[in-house]
Amino acid sequence: MSDTSPLTDPRRITYYHAHLYYEDAAGLAEARRVAEAAAERFAIRVGRFHERPVGPHPLWSCQLSFAAELFGEVVPWLALNRGSLDVFVHVGTGDDRFDHTQGVMWLGRSHALDLTVFGDD
């Protein structure tokens, strides 16, 4: 069976986000440690450390933003250095629903997102 849908050019991905997930003060401390180490090693932007669920994210989180060209360096590093954190990685194409549902990968356990923040299909 062949798929006749058009293929999308990967150059459409202009950035990636890696969301560090945690649930308590100990997890927050670990997220700060991982984010700081990543920022020292890579050209990334570290977002705020939320102590409540924000947007579609079901747990406390911090967003790491980085250029698409850094994916092959940042994501393997996170896979090996995330400690006990779960990490939600997604593409950045400008289509938030797609980016958070189709262009995703998990390091550690996966969690159900609250997709209602993106409105109806």
Describe this structure in words.
The protein has 3 helices and 5 strands, in the order βαββαβαβ. The chain has helices at residues 25-41, 71-81, 96-101, and strands spanning 15-22, 44-49, 60-67, 86-92, 104-107. The mean pLDDT is 93. It has a single domain, classed as DOPA-like domains (Alpha-Beta Plaits, 2-Layer Sandwich). The two termini are 27 Å apart. The longest helix has 17 residues, at 25-41. With 121 residues, the protein is α+β, with helices and mostly antiparallel strands. Its EC number is 1.14.99.-.
Low-confidence stretches: none
Distance between the termini: 27 Å
CATH topology, what is it called? Alpha-Beta Plaits
- Identify the overall geometry: globular
The CATH class is identified as: Alpha Beta
Protein name: DOPA 4,5-dioxygenase
Keywords: Dioxygenase, Oxidoreductase
GO molecular function, one term: dioxygenase activity
Enzyme class: oxidoreductase
Topology of this protein?
Elements: E1 15-22, H1 25-41, E2 44-49, E3 60-67, H2 71-81, E4 86-92, H3 96-101, E5 104-107
Antiparallel strand pairs: 1-3, 1-4, 2-3, 4-5
Describe the structure concisely for a colleague:
With 121 residues, this protein is an alpha+beta fold. It has helices at 25-41, 71-81, 96-101, and strands spanning 15-22, 44-49, 60-67, 86-92, 104-107.
Descriptive keywords:
alpha+beta, 28% helix, 27% strand, 121 residues, Alpha-Beta Plaits
